[in-house]
């Protein structure tokens, strides 16, 4: 009986609290937006009660479908986190919807939904939201399974905030990415990390053997635990995704800046991109930022604002957060890290924690469940989206569609409309 009362009390407490970021954040304008909402109604009280009971009793959040979507959209109620405060001067995003983008026909060879218009594809069950920003203006925006003000888990997209933080410190002469990581961490000497240049860690080619995530999620001394990692192959010779790479880079940001990763992102990125809403950042029991797994939760527009920082429209002004040097380094890839994509039928590379840097200079980062951020500096284009795998564990294919859109000619800067 006592346990039942505890469960009911905990669930009631969860339901009594509104989504945390909505407490102190207000929309920029009361003017009605032009985005598509597709009549999304959210979760019922019964569904929320059932999910919190499921988690409280030790259930796994990776259930796929609607239960997993609930986790993505309600991270503040379920996991430990810190807050990244919104900007004092939010960046206004002008809305200029384009029918030619809305009616763009997707490739017919997609696993599901091929041949549909973009607007119809977005209504597939695997899509939560999509935003397309061209020349600084929103040209398409749809929210089939979330609200525009919802904070949605970014997962591994957060790793690009880590690499951006490294690049900011690099631009200031505080980090030399050609040096080995043990130059900055004496405790990594004699470990698998010894002699591994930071630039190879940034390109996800550290050569470090797989380390279970659970080690870091409960760690009270992450750098000590990282020192136990072994080398599996020479660094810089082969792309090998590893969350440990993002973890050690996060700790490097904190060591060199003297502040937490949460505070660094808030001061050097979130404030400067003009984020409209506060974001969340997962943390472990010791307060260490989980930048490499659950990562950040943000609105879709704020993820788009971050993407804008890499485009000509977002880099106007005397001190852009993404320097010419940083952009050049992203695109100056290690030719050893070539990846032949069967789905895209082209070659791409990994660099600065971006999962795909294409030969035309576009780059992309994807994440668990169907999240993604695609940037084309040459076309002044940002495509950001959130999704959830369906109950058959199938993701959306907006990564392929984003690439198709970029190459479609719709966004060529020398093309008049």
Automatic annotation (TrEMBL):
Residue ranges of domain Beta-lactamase-related in the record: 130-399
Cited Gene3D superfamilies: DD-peptidase/beta-lactamase superfamily
Signal peptide region: none
PROSITE patterns named among the record's database cross-references: PROKAR_LIPOPROTEIN
Name of this chain's protein: CubicO group peptidase, beta-lactamase class C family
Record lineage: Bacteria, Pseudomonadati, Bacteroidota, Flavobacteriia, Flavobacteriales
